Automatic annotation (TrEMBL):
This is ABC transporter ATP-binding protein. The keyword Nucleotide-binding applies. Keywords: Antibiotic resistance, ATP-binding, Nucleotide-binding, Transport. It comes from Kineosporia corallincola. Its main location: membrane. The keyword Phosphoprotein does not apply. It comes from the Bacteria. It is a peripheral membrane protein. It is found in: Cell membrane. The lineage of its organism: Bacteria, Bacillati, Actinomycetota, Actinomycetes, Kineosporiales. InterPro entries: AAA+_ATPase, ABC_transporter-like_ATP-bd, ABC_transporter-like_CS, ABC_transporter_ATP-binding, P-loop_NTPase. Residues 10-235 form the ABC transporter domain. GO terms for molecular function: ATP binding.
Length: 321
């Protein structure tokens, strides 16, 4: 079956979540497929955790709808619990319990739990099973929370920043584990601030800003595949209006943050040309400016993220006509 014919494991439609007068999620919509990793990205406060918590049935939406495996998490919690694995951002584990007891307890709640010794070894928790949660390091707690979320062989796994604070070796182990879940048909929905992680792991990326989904697609779709991008540092506040007429149609110049400039295509039909690179450096020369750290590279998810975040924040942008 093609991806479009497989019913989504998670369906968020027009979700609204408010805390008092603060709108945390403002009409967000996206889907997550089985056997795929969906990464929800966004700046601090973009509404990622609120969205995921509505999917987990931990928060009641104020508008829109959420379906997980076709069910409403608020009313079908009992049906969903054995089928959904949840790793909360703060771990959410009882501080006094020993790591091993927690894992045994979690495993005992499921009909067909994962092989515990295997999971413990993958997440390198072997030496810490007799240690109470409060004495575990941040990274160990993180790995334990992941083990608890996955031990029941869930069909859907919600992982809020699963690799935050992990050392590089532990991060690779978690990436492998997530890759294994995907291969086993699990719908993995994760949040992360690590864009290289999203680029490497995610089949589908959902980019949130101010409670809304501002871009979604495969990493390749979002980065425009092999499109080039030109970045450089220069004094902040340069008059980009004088660069616009020199650029080809659909090529945008943006000051993504003060003093950090990006020249790249703004539409899929446009492509950065050698003439655009020449025009940009000539414009710098006209201004008597040396563009520091001038790099012509392939556009990364981080570039896309910064460009969209800058646009949302009202950064200066001009587009060649
Ligand atoms: N319990 C709460 N009470 C009041 N406001 C909240 C609460 N939880 C979140 N918010 C606010 O809602 C907005 C969205 O927060 P949320 O935690 O969903 O964002 P996030 O994208 O997960 O952020 P981060 O990357 O920092 O974890 C923020 O402005 C936050 O301050």
């Amino acid at each position: 079956m093609s991806r479009s014919l497989v019913p989504p494991a998670v369906e968020v439609a027009g979700l609204v979540k408010r805390y008092g007068s603060r709108v945390a999620v403002d009409g967000a919509s996206f889907t997550a497929a089985p056997g795929a990793v969906t990464a929800v990205l966004g700046l601090n406060g973009a509404g990622k955790t609120s969205t995921i918590e509505c999917c987990e049935g931990l928060r009641r939406p104020d508008g829109g709808s959420v379906r997980v495996l076709g069910r409403d998490p608020m009313t079908d919690g009992a049906w969903l619990r054995p089928r959904v694995g949840v790793m909360l951002q703060d771990g959410g584990l009882p501080q006094a319990a020993r790591a091993g007891d927690l894992l045994d307890l979690a495993a005992a709640m499921y009909a067909d739990p994962l092989d515990l010794p295997g999971l413990v070894s993958t997440l390198d928790l072997g030496g810490r099973l007799r240690t109470p949660v409060r004495r575990l390091s941040g990274g160990e707690r993180q790995r334990l929370a992941l083990a608890v979320a996955l031990v029941g062989r869930p069909d859907v796994a919600f992982l809020d920043e699963p690799t935050a604070g992990l050392d590089p070796q532990a991060r690779l182990a978690v990436w492998d584990l997530i890759g294994g879940l995907r291969a086993g048909g699990v719908a993995v929905v994760l949040t992360t601030h690590l864009l290289d992680e999203a680029e490497r792991l995610a089949d589908h990326v959902v980019l949130m800003a101010a409670g809304r989904v501002v871009a979604a697609g495969t990493p390749r779709e979002l980065t425009g595949g092999s499109d080039h991008t030109l970045t450089f540092e220069a004094p902040p506040g340069l008059d980009l209006g004088r660069l616009a007429p020199l650029l080809s149609a659909g090529i945008a110049a943006t000051e993504v943050r003060p003093g950090h400039y990006v020249v790249a295509n703004r539409t899929p039909e446009a492509h950065l040309l050698p003439a655009d690179v020449a025009a940009t450096t000539a414009w710098c020369a006209q201004l008597g400016i040396m563009p520091e750290g001038l790099v012509l590279g392939r556009r990364s998810l981080e570039d896309v993220f910064l460009e969209i975040a800058a646009r949302q924040a009202g950064a200066t942008e001009v587009i060649g006509a």
